Every structure is written in structure tokens, then in C-alpha cells.
Amino acid sequence: MRHNRLLAAWLTAGLALLAGCSAASPEGASGGATLTYLTFETPSLTASFWDTSIANASKKVSGVTIKKLVAPSTDRDAYAKQLQASGQFPDLLQSITPSTFAQAGLLKPYDQAWVDANFLLPLGNAYKGKVYIPPTNSQIIPMVFYNKTLFARAGITAPPKTWAEFLTVCDKLKKAGVTPIELGGGEPFAASMPLSGILSADVLGKNPQWLQDRYAGKVKFADANVQTAVAKYRTLVKNGYFETGALGVKYADSITNFTAGKAAMYMMGSWFLGSVPKDHADDFGSFMTPTDDGSLVVPFAVGGSMAISAKTAAPDKATEFAQAWSLDPGNYKALIEGDGAFPMLKGKTLADYNVTVTQVFKDSYAYVGEQNNKVSSFGWATNDDSMPSGLNDAYYAASQALFGSDDVAGQMAKLDAAWNAATK
Amino acid sequence: MRRGDPALGAVAALALGLYALFIVVPLGMSAWKSLTDENPLLAQANFVGLANYRDMVHDDALTSSLTFTLLLAGAVTLVANAAGIGFALLLNRTSLSFRAMRTVAFLPQVLSGVIVGFVWRYILAQDGILNEVLVRTGIVDRPITWLGSPLLASFSVGLVAAWVLTGFTTVVHVAALQSIPVELHQAAIVDGAGPWQRFRRITLPMLAPGTTISVTISLITMLKLYDIIVALTSGGPANATQSTALYIVKLAFTDDRFGYASGVAMLLLVVSAVVALSVTGLLRRREVDL
């Protein structure tokens, strides 16, 4: 009998432990709920930012307690999948790629009326017509940032508009003893930025449906137009416009190298605007990856907030919290100033956010409001143009491989094979 | 405890139960999953027979990762054990300072692989300590891209893994050295044997059982290497340092191919078993020859 009681106590303790490990506790009679919220940290989105943003949004939702989870790397999709595989899928998931999870029925779409009422591009990152992450802000990925002082030193008076002009600029910089383009190639996503810029400009610029066509099997990476675009990246490498050891440069170091004037240009997502040094911000400008004919192509991605689990035990509280977070003015201020986010709230101007931003931020943000050729950012869009699971990794690996190899056809064939395997 | 003692039976049953629960059952589950198309995001999985195993034949990424893993395991095992024997010979003294040095030698083995990876990442970075020393002393003109070229990154992973493993191989060989009776050496000296002859005829044969253990464990450790690589190179550049263990995790949680990843895990298990058993058999025969 004594043994039975001991066994029961152990089992109860074990069950309590398991319950503690699982996601949301349901909304009880008091209306309270504990929700797990998957976040990630970067140099701009620090632990302090998340803690503050969670505290601010929690104040607007009665009886909710948020348990913050932090992805061990910026790859929150992979971590969310690990949590799902171990039965711990979070209730709220920040900035994941919704397509994979939505296909599996793991996400709850937002009320479209609420989305339509609050955001400039309500369907900006919709997947199959439904919004799983509110389009709170947008990014241009990549932009070409440049150092005006170094341009002037090389006798360059204006940023290039065509690809030919871009090559001339690179050549002038190199002759002036300046590294033309900074590349944080040690981080796979950063290594892919120049290629993303070129592919977005040359391939998606001419056929904005290219990714949809790839899903439909109408186009391939091995097609001549794609290979021609990729060959441009090889030209940049072969001409010595990057540092020889660029694949050994860490992402964080690439930012400091560029801001310290060690290179004249930097192809990176618009979040770099949050890292522009305030004391000499006027030294920096931005332009889009140039095309052959000089036409403007803006690689665009919309997102910025969190997805809600379809399996959460407290859907109402989860939605309330997510909506409160997505509209919190404090978050917008922090994201605009620290992460270079372009706000997408309806009926607001930059002045309404009470932010202090640089001129290069204002100039870059202007691309968002202008009527221009916006295309999905290659490899970054989280809408119907998002790439299938695993393709981003294959694409990053191809970008790194192409830094040291002329085998464009071989790398494109690998990408086609990876795409076919992922969509089989 | 006597033979036939019920307590002995209970202890044995508990041990077998735990072994079954934590080793046999997960292994069986993995083997079963390798015959399905399980996706970590979907509740249902379909039985696909041996399709995953057939797919492996055409999987270039698997071939690359397996080749890298086997080469790395072979090279690191060789280097770490050679270095381990060398350090063991140097540290085989009984004074306090030598005992302290043996502890220091074992330290890399105690550290978490992730910490080791991050520390070495800073050492081997473009502007890291190693390049700083090499450039300042004039040995090289410009920093070497230790982690940025496929070949050098592979070498760097091997270097760091060997550094970690050498702590373990040193301790194993020190223990083996200390089990050699002093009288054997004294008798050999009386018989006029020189240092090389004593090493060749006494030390090396007596070290052989320790070497067998050290080599086998080194190989198994290297064949499943994951943590150091994740922190040091993340498998890059261009997947050049992607070990099979890394590839399995990527297949499961990035590509959503849990069933296929289980198949690759089973393959790695078989490869590890074959390599470990072959090498152990070979070394045991060598022990007899020596």
C-alpha cells in the first residue's frame, strides 16, 4: 500500500512536469491563460526588446501570462518544427514562414476584417488568400547601401542606375584602393544577398510570377535567363570586387566593416538601416540592385509580427495578445529605430511614430510608398512566393559555392533537384 | 548478494528495462520511421517500404556528408591518438605538477562542444587571434580564411576536433602507461635495451589494449560529430563541413523529411557499427601480434 502511494506520487509529479512542458494552459474560469511565444534574438532585436514588447502587449490583455521561448538561432522555422515534433508547438510564433506550417493546419488565420482595417497592404504576405502574420511592416531585401565619402574619393558622383554603370563604379573603387563590396559570407544568408539582389532584379523584375511558375514547373533555375543573372554575381567575384576571404567574414563583422568605411557598398536587407551610425549617418545612401536597362526593381517582403497556433488551448487570448502586440506604438518605434523596419499601419506617417530616423532611412522608406515595380524578395518573401522547405538552405549553400566556383550550371541544376525533392 | 538472489534479478531486470526503454525502443522506432514518409508537421505518416533507402542511392548531399564524416573520423582519430600517445609519454610522471598538467590536457574533453566551437570560431576568424599572430609575426602577408574556404574549413574542423579528442586519448594512454610494471623497463635496462627498443618492445605492446579502446571511442565520437561543427561552421561554407549528423537534423527539421532522416540515421548507425567493429577486430589481432 505504501509502495502504491509512492508510485502514485511519482506519477503525479511526472504528469505535473509534463504538463509544465506543454504549451498553453487553457483559459480557466477566471479567464487567465499562459501562452508560449517563440521569439528570436538579433543584434537589433535584443532580449530587452522582446521583454519590453511582451510586457507592453500583456498590459492590454487581461489575465494572460506570456512564457517567452527564444530560438537558438535566427532559424526559428527549424526550431518551431523541433518543438512541434516534441509536442511543444508554441501558441505564438514570431516571424516564421507561414506556408509550411499553414499547409499542415498548424496556424490560425487572422480575422481579415481586422487586418483590412489596420494595415496598408492587407494581403501583402497572405498565403493562399489568408493572413497568418499581420503585415505590420515591410522590408526591402536587399538594398545596396553605399558610403558617399568613399564614392567621392573614387571620383564617383552618383549611384549607378544600370548594371554597366555598377561595374564601372566597382572598377573605379577598386582602382582607388577601396574594397567595392562588403560581404559577410561566413553567415549563409548574408552570403546570398548579392545573388538575391541580382535574381530579384533580373529574373523577378521581368517575371514577377517566376516563383509561382517554378512551382508549376514552367521555369527552372537551369534556364538561360537565370544562369545569365547568376553569371553576373560570378563577374563580381572574378573581378575582385569582394574581399578574397569574404566567406570567412562573420555577419556582425561585415556590418562593422562597412560602417567603419572598410568597403564602399553593402548589399543587405533594409534592417541594416538600424545599424547606420548616427554620428555620420549622412555618409550613407542606398539604391536598388541595378538592372541592365536601368529600370527600377524593388525586392519587397511584408511581415513583422506573429503567427497563432491553430492548436492553442487559449485561441481568444492568443489572438488578443497578438493583435495588441501588432498595433503597439512602442514596438513600432523600437523596430523602426533599431531594426530599420518600414511601418505599414494604415493612416499613419513616419511622424506619427515619434521616431528619430536618418536621412538614408527616409530615402529608403520612400521606395515603399512610391509606385514602382515591387517584386517578392527572392528567398525572403513569406507569402505565396515563399520557397519550399529546405530550399533557402540549398540556395544559401549555392551562393557560397558560387563564390569559389564557376560552375553556374551545376549549382543551378542542384537547386532544381532540391526544389523537385522538396515539392515531390 | 548470492547467485539466484532475487535482489540481483531485480537489479538486472531494472538495467535491462532501462536499456530497452532508452536504447532498444528508440532504435526500433527510428527503424520503423525510416520506412515511412513522416513529416514533423503532419500527424499522419504513410508506409513507404524501402523507398527512403532507395532514394539514398541518388542523394549527392548524403554522399558528400558521409565522405566528409568518414575522412574526418579517420584523420582525427589518427592525429588525436598519435598526439595522445606523445602527450602521455611526456606526462607519465607522478609528481604533482605532472598530475596538474594531465588535468589541463583533459580539459578540452570536459568542455561543451558548443563552447569549444564558439571559442575556436573567434580564434580562427578572419580577424581572429591566429591570423593576428600570423600577420604580426610576418609569417603571412594577409589573414588566412580558415573558415571561409571549403578545404580550409574542413581542415579547421579536423584541427578543433583533434584538439578536443587529444585530451581523452592522452588520459587513456596515461592510464595504460601506468599499468605497465616498472620491473619490465628495469629488466630491459639491465639487458642493455635503449630507449627506442624499450618503447618498441615494451611500451607499445603494453599500450595496445588502451589504444584499441581509445581508437574505437575516437572513431565513434567522430562519426556522430555535431555540436562542434554547428558552432564552428554550421556545416558551411557551401555544405563543405556538413557531417552526416548535421545532415540528418537538416533533413528532419529544415526539409521536413523526418522519415528519410530516420533512414539516414539508420545508415549512419550501420556504418558506425561496421567501422567500429572492423577497427576493433583489426586492433585486437594487432595486440596479439605485438
From TrEMBL, chain A:
| Key words of the record | Signal, Transport
Check the record and name the InterPro entries matching this protein.
Bact_solute-bd_prot1, SBP
- Residue span of the signal peptide, if any? 1-24
Q: Which Pfam families does the entry mention? A: SBP_bac_8
Family classification: Belongs to the bacterial solute-binding protein 1 family.
- This one is known as ABC transporter substrate-binding protein
